[in-house]
Structures are given as structure tokens and as C-alpha cells.
From TrEMBL:
The keyword Transport applies. Residues 5-265 form the ABC transporter domain. Belongs to the ABC transporter superfamily. Pfam families: ABC_tran, oligo_HPY. PANTHER family: DIPEPTIDE TRANSPORT ATP-BINDING PROTEIN DPPD (PTHR43297:SF2), OLIGOPEPTIDE TRANSPORT ATP-BINDING PROTEIN APPD (PTHR43297). This is ABC peptide transporter, ATPase subunit. GO terms for cellular component: plasma membrane. Its main location: membrane.
């Protein structure tokens, strides 16, 4: 199925919903819409269970549960200039797109790499799917890829098995496989979660450099706000399967409008401020099968008003300057109370 997207968009998502089960089904992603422009890094951020990883899987047609339903539109601009809609596309056509036009790296590389084959064999297999190359050309390209990602002793790495590498090295290998066919869009689903802070910084820095060198687009899925501030141009905040706020990083971090986004900011540790106490978000994320009436965040929101927030479901509104979107019934009156904190200003410089 072909469709159209804006000239500058590599990905355009409209009214995307994902549900699981039957009679009744449970919606875990609820009518979301967003786009990723060419050469842009967009982050999806939120707590575990908010639907962000499910969204990432849906974008490449990887929701394989027989009882799952994916509805809406996922329009992807292919490298050949054609635009296709992923929703409803057959597996054979999807295989031509995965890795070639859009690729994905996952949270735990050990479960994605085959323990029975060497790293070199697995990178060369990825190359053989979409690129017409001889065996020697594939071997040379595999060496080039691992070298590009800063893996020490690249030839030794290619001859190694996954269990012989550290977690950080395995994740770099997964990035090499994802980039092997020069995709226009890279979806990175919590790629640094299982890694220590030092290795996290190295992976994020490497992704930023690769994006600058190749001008590819990146959709970075994470729960880590510090990483979002470090890597992204724009962010989508998800809660209970919906986008609740969206905007440029400097605006979103400097002046969050949605009470949930504000609560996320307060729950972060602040380096260099011994007096600051982390303020956890009270309560827990709602069960997708039993969402509260009205605003899904109202049971945890310190600004919720009885008879309003627990009755009326807010829509996603665009701010007057057109730069941001926010899902809150009271955001305009609360906006005057929000200001940029010094530590956020320093992090965004």
C-alpha cells in the first residue's frame, strides 16, 4: 500500500492504536500521532508500561501476537522515494523494508544475537539480505562497520561469539547490524538500559556522531530523561498509551506544561545539589485494562480538580506558538507556574 508524507518527513504516524486480546481487547497504545523529520532525533519517553516499546514494534510490523490489533496509519518514506503504509502490509513486503529502509536495535542484545554464530557471520548475513555484495566485500564491510563503532580489535571481534563480548560491545554490534544497509530511520528501543553509565555515554555519543555523519533519523525510546536531554531534538512524553506532551527539548525540559511531565522532571536526581530531594510520583501507572475515567493521570496528579479531571478526558492541544502539544484540561492556567530550573538550563546548553 502506498501513501504520502510531508517532503521532510521520513515517518508519519496517524491515529495509531494497538490492542491485545479479544472480547474485550485491551488498548495499550491509544490513538497517537507524530512524525519524524529527515535527519531528526526524536525521543519517546515514559514509565514502563506506557506503550512506548509497543509503539516502536508496531512501526516495523513486529507485533506478532495472533490476538493483537494494529489500526491507524504508519507511513514510511523509503530510500527509493516511494512511501508505504506499514499497517496491514504483508510479511514478505515488510522484510524488504526492515533493515533496508528502517532498522531497530533492542534493549538486550544477547537475546537478539544468535549464540551459535560469530559476530562476523551475523553482520555479513544482514548485509546479504539487502545488498548485492560478494563474500569478500561483505567481510570488508563488516570490518568497516565494527571499526566505525569504535570496537577495539575489530578483527578479533568479528571472530568472537556473542557470549565472549561485554554488554557494551554486544550493543555496538547490534548497532553495526542495524546500520549495515544504511537505513533512513533507526529505532532504538532502550538501547542503553542494561549498561553502566560510562558505557551508556559512549553508546549515546556514538549514535549522535553516526547521525551527524549519515543524516539518518533516529527514534530513541527510553525512560531516562537525562539521555533524552543529551541526544534528542524533540521528545514525545507517553502515559497510559497516549502522547501527553510533545515539543522541542529546550522547551519541554525548560518549561514542561503537562503535570505528568513536571512530575517526571521532579523525580530526577540533580547532580551537584545535595539539598535536593527526589520527589517520586505518587501512586502507580494505571492498568491499561482498567483506566480511570477522565484524565488517565488524574489519580496521581497534584493539580487534579474533582468534577473536571476525573470526568472529562483531555484532548491533545497545540500551544499558541504552534511549537508544542499538551494533553491537560488545566495547562493554560498552570502554565504561569512553570519555570526553567538552573540545573535544566545547564544541561541543555
Amino acid at each position: 500500500m502506498t501513501s504520502t508524507v510531508k517532503d521532510n518527513d521520513v515517518l508519519s504516524v496517524e491515529q495509531l492504536s494497538v490492542s491485545f486480546g479479544r472480547s474485550p481487547s485491551v488498548q495499550v497504545v491509544r490513538d497517537i500521532a507524530f512524525s519524524v523529520r529527515k535527519g531528526e532525533i526524536v525521543a519517546i519517553v515514559g514509565e514502563s508500561g506506557c506503550g512506548k516499546s509497543t509503539t516502536g514494534l508496531a512501526l516495523l510490523g513486529l507485533i506478532s501476537d495472533d490476538g493483537a490489533g494494529v489500526h491507524g496509519s504508519i507511513r514510511l518514506a523509503r530510500k527509493d522515494g516511494q512511501t508505504v503504509d506499514i499497517v496491514g502490509m504483508g510479511e514478505r513486503k515488510l522484510q524488504k523494508i526492515r533493515g533496508n529502509d528502517a532498522a531497530m536495535i533492542f534493549q538486550e542484545p544477547m537475546s537478539s544475537l544468535n549464540p551459535l554464530f560469530t559476530i562476523g557471520t551475523q553482520i555479513q548475513e544482514a548485509l546479504s539480505v539487502h545488498r548485492k555484495m560478494s563474500a569478500s566485500e561483505r567481510a570488508d564491510e563488516a570490518l568497516k562497520l565494527v571499526s566505525m563503532l569504535g570496537i577495539p580489535s575489530p578483527q578479533k571481534c568479528l571472530q568472537s561469539y556473542p557470549h565472549q563480548l561485554s554488554g557494551g560491545m554486544r550493543q555496538r554490534v547490534m548497532i553495526a547490524i542495524a546500520l549495515s544497509c544504511n537505513p533512513a530511520l533507526l529505532i532504538a528501543d532502550e538501547p542503553t538500559t542494561a549498561l553502566d553509565v560510562t558505557v551508556q555515554a559512549q553508546i549515546v555519543d556514538r549514535l549522535k556522531r553516526l547521525q551527524q555523519d549519515t543524516h539518518m533519523s533516529i527514534l530513541f525510546i527510553t525512560h531516562d530523561l537525562a539521555l533524552v536531554a543529551e541526544i534528542a531534538d524533540r521528545a514525545l512524553v507517553m502515559y497510559a498509551g497516549q502522547i501527553v506532551e510533545e515539543g522541542p527539548i529546550t522547551e519541554l525540559f525548560g518549561r514542561p506544561l503537562m503535570p505528568y511531565t513536571q512530575a517526571l522532571m521532579r523525580s530526577r536526581p540533580r547532580l551537584g545539589d545535595a539539598r535536593h530531594r527526589i520527589q517520586p510520583i505518587r501512586g502507580s501507572a494505571p492498568n491499561p485494562a482498567a483506566l480511570p475515567a477522565g484524565c488517565a493521570f488524574h489519580p496521581r496528579c497534584e493539580h487534579a480538580v474533582a468534577g473536571l479531571c476525573d470526568v472529562t478526558a483531555p484532548t491533545l492541544e497545540t500551544t499558541d506558538d504552534g511549537k508544542r502539544q499538551v494533553r491537560c484540561l488545566r495547562w493554560r492556567e498552570l502554565e504561569q507556574q512553570v519555570h526553567c530550573t538552573p540545573e535544566v538550563e545547564g544541561q541543555l546548553k
